[in-house]
Amino acid sequence: MIYLDHNATTPIDARVLQEICQVEQSIWGNPSSSHVFGQKARSILDQTKREIASFFSVFPEEVFFTSCATEGLNTILRSTKGHIITSSLEHEAVFQTAKALEREGVPLTFL
Fold first, then answer.
1. CA-to-CA distance for 23 and 17, rounded, in angstroms?
2. End of a domain among 65, 87, 103?
3. How many Å separate Cα 24 from the centre of its chain?
4. Are 71 and 85 in the same domain?
5. Is residue 41 part of a domain?
6. Strand pairing partners for 108?
7. Which terminus of the chain is more exposed, N or C, with fewer CB under 10 A?
8. How far apart are CA 22 and CA 15, in angstroms?
């Protein structure tokens, strides 16, 4: 069988899965908590943001983690200060948010 739905989800690389399991077993604190478990999680989260920022040549403060693509798309679109140009074939999360922003007065063009 050939799997062709990688856009929705994709199998996890064994190395990534191993790292996730290791972190989940040893660093499970809430990074927003002040206790030692949270501080450890915050340290790992901050280090990860620095690594990602370095890879993309941006500042760590410009790296955001969201729970899903829809949340990420909404975060980006709602922070836009100007004309949105997109495609009528765009994902529903973009299409619907763009239309909502248009109703709020944001200029919108579909190509």
1. 10
2. 65
3. 19
4. yes
5. yes
6. 84
7. N
8. 11
- Widest pairwise Cα distance in the chain: 51
DSSP labels, the chain: -----TTT--PPPHHHHHHHHHHHHH--S-TT--SHHHHHHHHHHHHHHHHHHHHHTS-GGG----SSHHHHHHHHHHT--S-EEE-TTS-HHHHHHHHHHHHTT--EEE-
pLDDT tens for 73-95 read 999 999 988 899 999 888 888 99
User: Residue 78: which domain range?
Assistant: 66-111
pTM, two decimals, is: 0.70
Model confidence at 71: pLDDT above 90: yes
Residues 88 and 106 both lie in one domain = yes
Total number of domains in the chain: 2
